[in-house]
Amino acid sequence: MNKNLYIYLKGLFFLVIFSIFHFAYEIFPSPVLVPVCAINESIWQHLKIAFFSYFVLNLVEFVFRRRSIQNKSDFIFSRLFTTTVIPWFVFILWYTMAAFYGRLEILLLEVIFASIVTALSGAVCATIELNIEDKHFTRNFKAFILIIFVISASLYVIFTYKLPWIDMFVVPETVK
């Protein structure tokens, strides 16, 4: 497959799966969906669904490509790495608007911008994957990726049930 097509398709499929994870709990309010789907509109929930939806996308990709993958270990670790960082690409790209423009007051524009940010984040991670999947990862780097991945997954689930004492944008002195 052409690398540019792969990048665009991965971004598009990420947007689709992200959207499913965004609305699944609202449509089917089951406790089973709580750990991986958005349960409210908080920043954290959006980071969580970015993480889990990209993980699912990578699992699907692995299933479809498993026979053609040259080095399965490096493929897997490149995908675990991008799964771990994609929430932060979503965060950075989303807050670029807030930093340089401010709040989008028209809901349709906000939805369009959010969709672009989500697809672009997926495309960025697909680009990273294409650039690192054929590299040999050292044992230490694989351990680091695995540890950060597990910690990230744990935090997304734990903070869904038990919020930390402070929000990311609240000045600590104002919290009682």
Explain how this protein is built.
This protein is an all-alpha fold and 176 residues long. It has one domain (3-164). The protein is 72% helix and 0% strand. It contains five helices and no strands. It starts with a helix and ends in a 15-residue tail after the last helix. The relative contact order is 0.15. The mean pLDDT is 94.
Name the features.
176 residues; mainly alpha
Number of DSSP strands? Answer: 0
**Unreliable residue runs:** none
Count of the domains = 1
The helix tally amounts to: 5
Give a topology summary.
Blueprint: H1 3-27, H2 43-65, H3 72-100, H4 107-132, H5 139-161
Helix pairs in contact: 1-2, 1-4, 2-3, 2-5, 3-4, 3-5
Q: Nutshell version of this structure?
A:
The protein has helices spanning 3-27, 43-65, 72-100, 107-132, 139-161. It is mainly α and 176 residues long.
